[in-house]
Amino acid sequence: MSVLTETAAALVGGGKGILAADESVGTMSSRLEKAGVAPTEENRRAYRELLVLTPGLAGGVSGVIFCDETLRQRLSDDRPFPEAVQSLGILPGIKVDTGARPLAGSPGDTVTEGLDGLFPRLEEYISLGARFAKWRAVIAVDQSRPSAAAVRTNAHALARYASACHQAGLVPVVEPEVLMTGSHSMARCREVTAYVLHAVADELRSFGVDFAATVLKPNMVLPGASSGEHASPDAVARATVEVLIEQMPAELAGVAFLSGGQSPREATANLAAMQSLPSPWPLTFSFGRALVEPALAAWRGEADLVEAGQQALFERTAANAGVLTGAAVG
Ligand code: 13P
Fold it and tell me: Which CATH number, 3.30.70.100, 3.20.20.70, 3.40.50.300, 3.40.720.10, labels domain 3-325?
């Protein structure tokens, strides 16, 4: 087993999942503001410190994804974030895309950017302690979207990124997110998810990417948030696992789902329902909002509510790790 294969297996195995704490400076700032916290660099740092110092976090979390700003910041005790999580037995990761921008010629679609100068950035992130990376492609859904060009362009970028990660020595977390925003049906989400995963698997193959050293971070198959349709966890789990098995090779290291705007409880219930279905891969979580929203709401930037924030994160992490097969949460 290569080091990268081992790292990928560690990220998705052992009854643990990944904490996505990699909101960009802009997104994090607006989430802090909504929670009544001033959107300063120090408050973004303090919030991430609260998250990573949550007692017992390593019992349910194998890796934490940071953004560029946090990877370079230090805890109050002066240790850099990557070193602090590594000392807890948690793998440090880094979001390396630079965000989704409008795609010319495909109105309403986006392409995720960040390929220019990527390789030297990956080398620098490794020198700062990163062991894995993440790139998110964003696919919006309606009757006419996504265009074939948008899917192809995003899949191509994901494959170039994944290939560069392997060459540099990082495990790529490949995130093609079909958004749940919109009034589309669950059937339409399934159709678009299949189409997108097909394109991603195709591009990864054409770049010779080693699937065993790669983690897929997909959306779950869900009805659009404003569709009025409700899907039971069993229905979500069946549709999601079916489409993954249909489109992705068995060699993939594992699948770590994003939460995508589901409520924390919904995301956990859907993840739990998947565990009873046969699958060639570990199926785990790489949630952002579904893990950290309750923590941010409990903390509200108050020094004496740090423990309340940490308790909220611990509860969500334990709930998610607890539904994974073979989970052992400490
Ligand atoms: P959510 O779980 O909030 O969708 O975030 C996951 C993520 O990493 C988005 O890129």
Answer: 3.20.20.70
